[in-house]
Design a protein that fits this description.
This protein is mainly alpha-helical. It contains five helices and no strands.
Length: 179
Amino acid sequence: MRYSTLEMVLDEQLREIFVGELHIARHLPRLVVDVSSSELKSQIGKALEQCHVRIERLERLLKTRNLMVETAQSRVVDTLMKQASEVVQHRGDDLLLDYGLVVILRHLESYQKSVYESAREVANGLSVTDVAATLELDLEDHGRMERYFTVLEEDMLDSIVARRGTNDKTRHPWEATTR
């Protein structure tokens, strides 16, 4: 798309954010089924609830800006969700599966957060305070989720390393076993 105004940039960013949230809302319920950790299941459920709230806010925002959103792809979200499906397909150890999904969810939150930040900055630059305020609310949601998934990822990694026992302490958990 060719941009001729900063307003067009903002509108395209809002569409991208909205489509990303729709894709996340479609994919998260599939992940819950394959997760073994009740804590992670609960957190994915919370993430899904927040996603629906963000979608409602964004729908209102798009409507007030008279923006139409055609069904589109969110390449980054779709790629991350495809990775999550691949992790599930190669199911093995439950903790490792959960760990792999947490890493992907953290990356997803980080991506969404960066897209929201960019759009918020454009909205602030244009002095479109209603858009900036809505994006800030949603950005706070993504920030909380990203921090939570980061802590959970670190805790899971500690558990994986701890259960490896004393024989393999010199190797890192991401190294393939060669026995």
